[in-house]
Design a protein that fits this description.
Largest sheet: 6 strands, mixed
Shape: elongated
Strand content: 5-15%
Number of strands: 6
Radius of gyration: 26 Å
Strand order of the largest sheet: 2-1-3-6-4-5
Order of helices and strands: HHHHHHHHHEHEHHEHEEHEH
Length: 319
């Protein structure tokens, strides 16, 4: 509906940016994120910086200087909302950085063209640009060598994201897909929306992850009520609960309505059929199914719990 469109596009979006982290913390976030982003390809960023400076030094020769500059400003503004500065936010900067890299290579070539080589080294300006490009790419390949050529996808995920259960949710999603049909819906109570993609199953609720429900914003408890209503109405076949506070962004001041509702609802309508404990990198994870899952005492902060609709209720729903 139009009201939902307006709420998510404008009302909640304005709240999301207004309840941002303090400026001091934001500057710290920017420093660490930018350090990480630049560290992945230092020479390419230096060429981009040279291209940025050269665009103004030679602006008479480049009618698009101001267009590219305002494109850069707009791209950087897109990174600012909330002052979170998460690394993937910088993706929106990449197109304009690529333009400045190209401009930097062009200007480096033109500087050598202005040097009189008495016609003997006319190939040098072009060679300089190509050489800089090759060196920048080679540096990137050297830095990312382990990532690009040696580690498996699972190893990369574990190394990069630590206890985030991206590897575990893949095989859980495969299991859910094998025991459901394309018409069945599932729900994720927590922070792993990739399960919907991996399992090719639709969400029973519009909330595919928990973050907005835990934020310190005026609509959080209303959103919790919406999610509860969606789940009770659509009765998902499976519910995946990521039972750890850090990755759900729970704070001491987060609303608790959904946590008061959840244990009662699960106990009445669902059976616990699977538990995955996400362990440190060297051990990784342990999985328990069936009776073993129901009797297992979770000893780790990071765990996943899989709930299945009680069999008698599932049968009644399908009549």
């Amino acid at each position: 509906t139009f009201s939902n469109f307006w709420f998510w596009t404008f009302t909640y979006a304005s709240v999301y940016t207004s309840y941002q982290v303090p400026l001091r913390d934001g500057i710290e976030n920017l420093y660490f994120a930018f350090h990480s982003v630049i560290g992945a390809s230092p020479l390419a960023w230096k060429i981009a910086l040279f291209g940025f400076a050269a665009s103004f030094l030679f602006r008479k020769e480049n009618e698009r200087t101001w267009f590219i500059f305002f494109f850069f400003i707009a791209s950087f503004i897109s990174v600012l909302p909330g002052f979170y500065f998460r690394e993937h936010y910088f993706v929106t900067l990449m197109p304009v950085i690529a333009i400045y890299i190209g401009f930097g290579l062009q200007r480096a070539s033109e500087i050598f063209k202005r040097i009189d080589f008495t016609g003997k080294l006319k190939w040098l300006p072009g060679a300089v640009a190509v050489l800089l490009f090759v060196v920048a790419v080679s540096e990137k390949l050297r830095i990312e060598n382990d990532y690009l050529f040696h580690r498996s996808a699972n190893d990369i995920s574990i190394h990069a994201y630590g206890p985030n259960p991206f590897v575990e949710t893949k095989f859980l999603a495969d299991s859910i897909a094998a025991h459901t049909t394309s018409k069945d819906q599932i729900a994720v109570i927590g922070s792993e929306p990739q399960v919907f993609f991996y399992s090719h199953r639709h969400s029973a609720t519009g909330f595919i992850y928990f973050f907005p429900l835990m934020e310190l914003q005026p609509y959080a408890e209303k959103m919790q009520q919406w999610m509860i209503s969606d789940i009770e109405k659509n009765e998902p076949r499976y519910i995946l609960y990521t039972g750890y506070g850090y990755l759900m962004r729970i704070t001491p001041r987060s609303g608790r309505i959904i946590f008061e509702w959840l244990p009662k609802y699960l106990n009445l309508h669902y059976d616990l059929i699977g538990v995955v404990e996400v362990l440190p990198k060297d051990e990784r994870s342990k999985t328990y199914w069936g009776v073993e899952a129901q009797t297992h005492i979770v000893q780790n902060l990071y765990c996943l719990q899989v709930y299945r609709k009680k069999i008698h209720e599932d049968g009644e729903k399908n009549k």
